[in-house]
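Review form for a predicted model. The reviewer records the input and the model, then writes brief findings.
Reviewer: anonymous (R2)
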Amino acid sequence: MCNLVPVALTVGANRIVPTISIPYPLGDPLTPKEQQYKLRYHRVGVALDALTTEIEDQTVFKVKF
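Model under review:
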């Protein structure tokens, strides 16, 4: 999971799950707690799926924004 996808691609990370921002990678403290929970739950789920997905090249996994 990273917030700077171009940097992750440059350094050769093989599985990349985009996050929200640098200070708050998995949420925004200005949003309601319920919305934060849904966002975090989704991102962590994508990250877990990324770990179990067989890949051959660098892969950036899609997430809802």
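Findings: Strands lie at 15-16, 59-60.
Further findings: The radius of gyration is 12 Å.
Recommendation: see findings above.
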